[in-house]
Write a structure and sequence with these properties.
Elements lengths: L4 E4 L9 H14 L6 H5 L6 H11 L6 H19 L11 H10 L3 E5 L5 H7 L8 E3 L12 H10 L6 E5 L2 H9 L3 E5 L10 E3 L7 H8 L1
Parallel strand pairs: 1-2, 1-4, 2-3, 4-5, 5-6
Helix pairs in contact: 1-4
Length: 217
């Protein structure tokens, strides 16, 4: 049996930090006189910080210098980090730890593949960093999803072929990245949005041990 790696996205899969990103972007948008709603926020899912700012500026038809953009990106990240200060295990999404424990107990490799540049502190604060054999985040890659670079890097680090990789994702871009890399894609979220995934579950509590075992073989 060839060795498998299970690759997890972070935001919306392991923890719901998406709400903090939304609050930080919304506060920045308000300061720039732009209305930013939860519907607008859908467009930012799985998208890099730089691209996210461009989308928001477009909403307000705002032209900005690179210097202004850099300042706003820094402001947004500081706001976001301020929301994470009190983060703990209670922020983990339902069923995630049970799946991580089951994979570990069965000697499976586990990796993180996330666009977040704050992945390590989040994994530490939620006390699950010890489950991961490899962590690839926004500091390690230059191409955002749907480019599969983040997942391919994770495979390289653990020495597993892409076709022996299983990806858990909550964004369309992430599912597309996994599919492009010929990895098994498992959507966590809504069927209507993640229909390109090979399998879709509303959350990890819906994934049973039998299913995970089938992925191992």
């Amino acid at each position: 049996m060839s060795k498998k790696v299970f690759i997890f996205d972070l935001d919306g899969v392991i923890v719901d930090t998406a709400k903090y990103h939304f609050l930080a972007w919304q506060k920045l948008a308000q300061e720039l006189g732009i209305e930013f709603t939860p519907e607008h926020n859908e467009e930012l899912k799985g998208v890099s910080r730089v691209r996210s700012l461009d989308i928001i500026l477009n909403l307000g038809n705002i032209q900005a210098t690179q210097e202004e953009k850099d300042k706003w990106l820094k402001d947004k990240n500081e706001l976001y980090l301020s929301y994470l200060v009190d983060m703990d295990q209670s922020e983990l999404l339902p069923g995630v730890v049970a799946v991580l424990k089951f994979l570990k107990a069965n000697n499976q490799l586990i990796a993180l593949g996330s666009a977040s540049k704050n992945a390590r502190p989040i994994l530490e604060k939620t006390n699950i960093i010890h489950y991961f054999d490899a962590i690839v985040d926004g500091n390690d890659v230059s191409n955002a999803k749907p480019d599969p670079e983040v997942f391919l890097r994770a495979c390289q680090l653990v020495g597993v072929a892409p076709e022996d990789s299983i990806v858990f994702e909550d964004s369309v871009a992430g599912i597309q990245a996994a599919n492009t890399a010929k990895m098994k894609s498992i959507g966590i979220g809504e069927k209507e949005i993640l229909h390109e995934a090979e399998y879709i579950f509303s959350d990890f509590t819906m994934i049973n041990e039998q299913f995970i075992k089938s992925l191992m073989n």
